[in-house]
Amino acid sequence: MLFNLADVFNSLPLRAFLAFFTALFLALACGGKLIDILHRHQAKGQPIREDGPQTHLQTKKGTPTMGGLLILASTAAGALLWCDLKNPFVWISLLVIFIYGLTGFADDYIKVTRQTANAMTAKMKLILQFATALIAVGVISYYTPEAKRFSLAFPYFADLAVNISWFYIPFAMVVIAGSSNAVNISDGLDGLAAGLCVLSFLVFTAIAYICGTAWAPVFHQTTLPYTGEIAVLCAAVIGGCAGFLWFNAPKAKVFMGDTGSLSLGALLGTIAVMTKHEILLAIVGGVFVMEAVSVMIQVFWFRHTGGKRFFRMAPIHHHFEQLGWSETTVTVRFWLIAFILAVLGASSLVVL
Fold first, then answer.
1. pTM of the predicted model, to two decimals?
2. Which residues make Cβ contacts (< 8 Å) with residue 348, sequence separation at least 6?
3. Would you say 274 and 224 are in contact if contact means Cβ atoms under 8 Å apart?
């Protein structure tokens, strides 16, 4: 049998491997230069919340933001080099990254130029997020087999899926926009959001690969065309996040900012929609859910109890800081919770 180089590079696992190391190498190689550029253009760095932990006003002052550019650029490079560019899911994923990343960049830019923690209004962000989510869901639905187009699968039950008809479209939009904002809320401690994203994207790398290949029936999953290629994209994201963590580990030299967190969260939600694992995302990304819910509880409690607080501070990672946990302790323990949830989520692939 003759050795065929083309067949080797058609291998999904190999291209995922190459995408990971391409993104990782680019992030490590370019991170220092990007941080220098951001420092030069952000003399005062990202403005720190005055109502946040007081220690942050000293330890994080002057740190530049928009570090998400490093993740997005290295991810895009890895995807463009190693993904099948004829795959529509690859392009809709890159579109989601671009629009959400641009939205986050605009928000970060206003923050650093005006030195305010509040930039774009929530209404403006939500309009952009849901408009992009609508486009993404429309394209994904078009390329999804009709029998599964509007179905909602339940993890751990191989044959349990409910067709929710056209209600699926607004539901999927909420998944994408909600995931984007949940990751954004979690980005408050050095290394926290990036580490959580690595774990979540690891699980969805496996899910995308299985659902898009001949392995789907083996794991009692629905075979979904085009999703296998998303495993390569996920690998690139993991590489970009890992490279970013090199510079974002305590004490962070750069923050991810809305540029990275909004786009990574939206991409995670988009991939959950593509693979028909929207409910599983709530398990795998349980820490993101916990962070978002803590903010909602705090706002509700504050408004309905005359200004009292349910948590000492929200999001919940700040609550634990107020209890005396160090920033590193909170981050590592949240990573451990996320690892347990990732294992629990991955186990749904083998539970019959």
1. 0.94
2. 155, 156, 280, 283
3. yes
